[in-house]
Structure formats: C-alpha cells, structure tokens
Write a structure and sequence with these properties.
With about 160 residues, the protein is of the alpha+beta class. The protein has a single domain, classed as Ribosomal Protein S5, domain 2. The protein has four helices and six strands; from the N terminus they run ββαβββαβαα. The protein is globular.
Length: about 160
C-alpha cells in the first residue's frame, strides 16, 4: 500500500503483486560467474526458438542440474522488466522440478539466455505491458525450447 500526495490530498494506491513469489532456486542449483564464463567459452551450444543454451556435463557426484538465466539489457533498459522475464523462467524451472529430472540418467550445467534473433520480438512483447499474457507466452516458448534441448541431449 502506498500513500501518494496529490494536490494536498492523500491517495491510497494498492499495488497488485503480479510478480512471482518465492521464485528463488537454492544457491547450489545456480551457476557462479566463473562457471558461466567457462560454459560460454567452451561453446557447447544449442538454440531453438527464443532461447539458447550453453551446456556441459555435470560432475558425477552431483545428481542435479545447475542453471542460470540471463536477460540482456538490449531487451529493456528497465531492470524491472528484465527481472520479470528472469523470474518467470526460473519459477517455471522450479515448479516443474526440471532441476532434478535427469536426461537419460545424465545431469548438466547449463546457461540459458535469449536468442539474439528474437530480441526484437521480445522488445515488442514487453511494450504491450500485459504481464499475464507475457508470462504465458514466455512459458510456452520456453517449454518448446527446453523440450528440444532435452531431446538433443538425450540423443548425444
């Protein structure tokens, strides 16, 4: 709840919480900066639709995936919009328990980012500012990309 002074009158504004609650995955499931740099230099790369993935096999003693997600500043200069996109994707990974599902008994470290060819499409999408629709669209696109990524890794 916010109080806003407007010409001597106080207006009460109730803020709708469209953001996702508890969208934090535990720290051990995240990649640190050194690992992300290694993944991008190693160049094991897969791209499908809006999203691209850099990946390497996980250590044999870790029976879970580790991932991180990056939204470039080219999409929007406002951090609120970039964080919304990141939260939607990370919340989906957490809700579907994709961090714990092995790809044919193999686990990976992967870094997800938005494909450079779909930046313009996402910029137009964000300009609409219809968050429930944006959330549904991003989840649908991510499902397509992630299933293709899983199938690609299972064939290897």
């Amino acid at each position: 709840m916010f109080f806003i002074a407007n010409g001597g009158f106080f207006l009460i504004v109730i803020r709708q919480n469209i953001y996702l609650e508890n969208s934090m995955i535990k720290k051990k499931y995240h990649l640190n900066a050194k690992e992300v740099n290694y993944l991008t230099k190693k160049r094991n790369y897969f791209s499908k639709g809006m999203f691209s993935f850099f990946y390497i096999p996980q250590y044999s003693n870790n029976l879970f995936h580790q991932c991180s997600f990056h939204v470039t500043i080219k999409i929007s200069k406002e951090a609120v919009r970039r964080n919304f996109i990141r939260r939607v994707i990370m919340k989906y990974l957490e809700e579907q328990k994709l961090i714990f599902q092995a790809f044919q008994e193999k686990y990976f470290k992967f870094f997800i980012n938005i494909n450079k060819y779909s930046l313009e499409k996402i910029q137009q999408l964000i300009e609409k500012k219809d968050k429930p629709w944006i959330k549904d669209y991003l989840i649908k696109e991510f499902q397509i990309s992630f299933i293709s990524f899983q199938n690609f890794l299972c064939k290897k």
